[in-house]
Design brief:
The structure holds 2 protein chains of 2 kinds. Chain A is mainly alpha-helical. Chain A contains 3 helices and no strands. Chain B has helices spanning 2-25, 32-40, 49-57, 59-78, 85-88, 96-119, 127-144, 155-177, 190-216, 220-230. The chains are: A mainly alpha, B mainly alpha. At the A-B interface, helix 1 and helix 3 of A face helix 1, helix 2, helix 3, helix 4 and helix 7 of B.
Chain lengths: 102, 231
């Protein structure tokens, strides 16, 4: 197993673990955290696959550029989600959606 | 709940195995895009390949990414959770020790941000890293308690927020008017154009991150007051 494959696989594992949390946990803050971990997994996957072992060429700059934009988008999306959560909590006092409360 | 747990774990283990297998099936040789970018890098206006991709080859990505930032700020502001001016303009200043520690750090953050912006044309750096540092400087100012009036209805703040998208749009339309195509910069000016856009993007990203931070760390007493009056 090369380092590229190892880090790409860790990225996949992170995405899957976070996906489980996103599905199975009702608390909205945990869902937001799960989405963040998922995006970290995607970034790790992209950065790992940007460079292949048997080449003399530098890593693929397109993957790096996508990760750079992705980080900023993930941060702003997280902030928006947290804003929505704060508003939801202010209005209802709850931290879960209605259908998850039974 | 436990049934949902079991189903989700089973499906995701399968997904991880499938994607893991895909990784091992990937070709281990050259990526076509790397060669293409390397061969055209001399005309890109930035010798750093990542900056060239971000602002020239795939300018649309960065442009729409700045639009996403603007939408996120608009969304947060539409939730009406931003503190009002009375709450942000705290009357008490940071203590002597905090003030003495925060000020050099702020100066250092801003200096490193501009250094990274300049570095972006030929090395790892650029508008995003610089903007993140400016955002960190803004967060530090908020946390230390400096009375900065980050109100969204302030005209200067609105200008800073939209600066990145505006300058990107301006240069895009200018290049369109000169019949070169959207985001196809003239070869003799592309260095200046890229640096201008990066500077504007840095200002927008820094301001956006600071405002997003303020909006999610709104003074809790205001919320408590609201909920208690409601009940």
């Amino acid at each position: 197993m090369s380092s590229t494959q190892f880090f790409a696989f860790v990225g996949v594992a992170l995405v899957c673990i976070a996906m489980h949390s996103l599905i199975a946990r009702a608390h909205l803050l945990r869902k937001i955290l799960a989405i963040n971990i998922m995006s970290s997994g995607v970034f790790l996957f992209l950065v790992a696959l940007a460079w292949r072992e048997q080449t003399d060429l530098p890593p693929d700059p397109i993957c790096h550029a996508m990760v750079l934009t992705g980080i900023v988008v993930a941060v702003s999306a997280t902030a928006f989600a947290l804003g929505l959560l704060i508003k939801f909590n202010t209005l209802t006092g709850a931290t879960q959606l209605n259908d998850a409360q039974q | 709940m436990s049934k949902l747990n079991a189903i989700s774990i089973a499906l995701l283990v399968l997904a991880a195995m499938w994607f893991g297998a895909m990784i091992f099936l990937l070709p281990n040789d050259n990526l076509a895009s790397v060669g293409l970018i390397q061969s055209d890098l001399a005309n890109a206006g930035a010798s750093n390949a990542v900056t060239a991709v971000l602002l020239n080859f795939r300018g649309y990505d960065t442009y729409l990414e700045l639009v996403v930032l603007l939408i996120a700020v608009t969304g947060v502001c539409s939730l009406n959770i931003l503190p009002t001016s009375q709450l942000t303009a705290t009357t008490d200043k940071p203590g002597m020790v905090l003030d003495a520690l925060a000020k050099p750090l702020l100066i250092l953050l801003i200096m490193v941000a501009f250094y990274l912006l300049w570095l972006g044309s030929h090395g790892p750096g650029g508008a995003f890293q610089a903007g993140a540092l400016l955002g960190a400087a803004g967060v530090l100012m908020v946390l230390a308690g400096y009375p900065i009036m980050w109100r969204i209805d302030h005209k200067a703040v609105r200008g800073l927020l939209t600066l990145g998208v505006l300058s990107f749009t301006c240069f895009g339309l200018l290049s369109l008017a000169s019949q070169a195509g959207f985001f196809t910069y003239p070869l003799n000016h592309n260095k200046t154009i890229i640096f201008t856009i990066e500077f504007a993007a840095m200002c927008s990203i820094g301001t956006t991150l600071t405002i997003l931070f303020i909006s999610t760390t709104t003074n809790n007493d205001r919320h408590v007051n609201q909920t208690t009056t409601k009940r």
